Amino acid sequence: MFASIWNEIQKGGALLLLFLLIAPSPLMAVSPEDAAEAEAYYKEGRALNKQRMFNEAIIQFAQALKLNINVHKYHRGMQQTYMATRRGPHGVRYYEKLVRDHPNNAVVRYWMGRFYLSTKALERATDEFKKAIALAPNEEHAYISLGHIASRLGRLDEGLEAYLKANELVPDIPVVQVGIGNIYFEKGEYDAAEKAYKIALEKDGTHLEARYNLGLIFEKKGEFGEAAEQWGLMIEQDPNESSARAQLAKLYFRAKRYIDAVREYATLSLVKLDDPKVFMALGESQVLLAAELPDPEDRKLLQQKAIESFQRTLELQPKNEKARKYLERLKEIKIPDGKK
């Protein structure tokens, strides 16, 4: 019988057929033996994922869930595998069956919501998270996901309420603090947002979103040195982080630190090759820096670089009159050809 089922799978039949045979049994106490066996299936699934044997990995995770349905990491392994293979709808159907078999299991409800969320069925996801909360009101996971959805939909008060409840249950989770900070930021309550972002960064100093937004708050408060420090730390962590570099370049330009602005915009232009705003800003920074240079040869060479920046701006944005006017003025200047 198993051979015939496997033949169906190999012919392109859905893995659901196999899942019908290994779907978890009704919730019951898990024996130490079953728990150990479930963990072994899970580890095998992880190993198969690393080998990109995704179908086989899904079968192992399903076996783990059959033996112990209440372990979040088993569900996470299942979801991540489905997402890696871009088969979210198959995962949705699998979890819809789990929900029918275990309607009062908060963990199953939660992961049903996560699958709906991953397939952008936001209202269905919201319903499942609320059901998970009703079944397990002292678990933080569903509150966090509700906060994410409400924030995405612009329901800020609802999102804040969910995040605060999650924080009450398990204080100072970085992702929760960032969610709280983001909502306060959207509401214009910058002191409260700053506090939340700082807590998140105390727990996880690598959280780029918290650090970026903290820099924006410092900028809004006129604390430009602190803003530059936050964005500089982001660039140290990830030299290809273009959003922080763009903010830092703008900050240097406004502070008339043109040599720093030129450096940041020049680096940014290597990443954003098709962004006319970057080349326009680079050209302006080069012009203003050139005006500060005492050596006429250095000044004219930098003006030549500015010409190249404005030419690139016009290639990308032909109607940019500001770039055209800069270019016309610069071309009136005799640029040395480098010959002595």
End-to-end distance:
88 Å
CATH architecture of the domain at 6-26 and 36-102: Alpha Horseshoe
Mean pLDDT rating: 90
Sheet bearing the most strands, described?
A: none
CATH topology of the domain at 6-26 and 36-102: Serine Threonine Protein Phosphatase 5, Tetratricopeptide repeat
CATH class of the domain at 6-26 and 36-102: Mainly Alpha
> Quick one: how many beta strands?
0
What level of helicity do the residues show?
over 70%
DSSP strand content: under 5%
Uncertain ranges: 1-27
Task: State the helix count.
Answer: 19
Tell the overall outline: elongated
CATH superfamily of the domain at 6-26 and 36-102: Tetratricopeptide repeat domain
Over all CA atoms, what is the radius of gyration? 28 Å
Give the topology string: H per helix, E per strand: HHHHHHHHHHHHHHHHHHH
The secondary structure category is mainly alpha
Provide structural commentary.
The chain is built from 19 helices and no strands. With 340 residues, the chain is mainly α. Among the domains are: 6-26 and 36-102, Serine Threonine Protein Phosphatase 5, Tetratricopeptide repeat, CATH 1.25.40; 259-335, Tetratricopeptide repeat domain (Serine Threonine Protein Phosphatase 5, Tetratricopeptide repeat), CATH 1.25.40.
Give the gist of this structure:
The chain is mainly α and 340 residues long.
Task: For this entry, give a set of tags.
elongated, Serine Threonine Protein Phosphatase 5, Tetratricopeptide repeat, 340 residues, 76% helix, mainly alpha
